[in-house]
Every structure is written in structure tokens, then in C-alpha cells.
Design goal:
Blueprint: E1 2-15, H1 24-31, E2 40-53, H2 64-79, E3 82-83, H3 84-87, H4 98-112, E4 118-124, E5 130-133
Parallel strand pairs: 1-3
Antiparallel strand pairs: 1-2, 2-4, 4-5
Bound molecules: nickel (II) ion.
Nickel (II) ion binds near residues 15, 34 and 40.
């Protein structure tokens, strides 16, 4: 029997979408307002899903306190109130689109999560725009 537990989290962060090898005009064409050279912020809503079997001894899939602490350490402390381009090393050379942010979050959590679990990242950049990443199968 497999079941999925979800934990919601939130962070605010600033970013600029651009390619350094393109001029401002082309960046503006492709990335629009998100390419503002002076950066801008988003309120990111994160939903982390963990899938596996219920432990017959505890009745738990995962102690949600453990998942809460992982999200706090790997995502909230690292990203909240940060400029993603300038202050988060993963985005020094990676465009901080919602797609790339979701993949980075997946990789960071996967590294410290018990490997018996499958992981799913749902990341909202706005209330209407979000992506889901479940890793490569
Ligand atoms: Ni943006």
C-alpha cells in the first residue's frame, strides 16, 4: 500500500530571468517583466509530496516533523528573502525560472531524504502559475 504525504511551505525571493550572453533587448523580448535588470520578487508557495509505504509499527509514512525540518533547512533557510541570482549558489549560472527552482529544490531535498521515498515538488510562482517535478524515472 503506497500513500503520499504533503507538506506546504512558503518563501519570498527576488530574481531576474536573463541570459548574460543576450543583450537587454533580447532578454526583455523573451523573459518580459521577469527580466527587469533591477530584479523583482515573488511569493513562492511550495508543496512537497513524499510517497511510500505506511510503517506498520507507527502507522506513519514519514514523521512530518522530519519533512518539515528538511524543507526548513534545504529550502526556507537557503532561499527565503534572498536574491536567487546573487545569493543562492545554485543559480549563479542557472536561470532561476520556476522550472529550474523546482528542480533545484527536488535535488536538495532528495539528497537528505530517506531513499526509500519518492519525491514530488509542486512550486507556485504566482497563484495561477506552477510546475510539478517528480525527478527522472
Ligand atoms: Ni519573475
Amino acid at each position: 500500500m503506497r500513500i503520499t504525504a504533503y507538506r506546504k511551505a512558503h518563501f519570498n525571493a527576488a530574481h531576474r530571468l536573463y541570459r548574460p550572453d543576450w543583450d537587454d533587448e533580447r532578454n526583455k523580448q523573451v523573459f518580459g517583466k521577469c527580466s527587469n535588470p533591477n530584479y523583482h520578487g515573488h511569493n513562492y508557495d511550495l508543496i512537497v509530496g513524499v510517497t511510500g509505504a505506511i510503517d506498520p509499527e507507527t502507522g506513519y509514512l514519514i514523521d512530518l516533523k522530519i519533512l518539515k525540518d528538511i524543507i526548513k533547512n534545504e529550502v526556507e533557510t537557503a532561499f527565503d528573502h534572498k536574491n536567487l541570482n546573487l545569493e543562492v549558489p545554485e543559480f549563479a549560472a542557472l536561470n532561476p525560472t520556476v522550472e529550474n527552482i523546482a528542480v533545484v529544490i527536488y535535488q536538495k531535498i532528495k539528497k537528505v531524504l530517506d531513499p526509500k521515498f519518492d519525491l514530488e515538488i509542486k512550486l507556485y510562482e504566482t497563484p495561477r502559475n506552477f510546475v510539478v517535478y517528480k525527478g527522472e524515472k
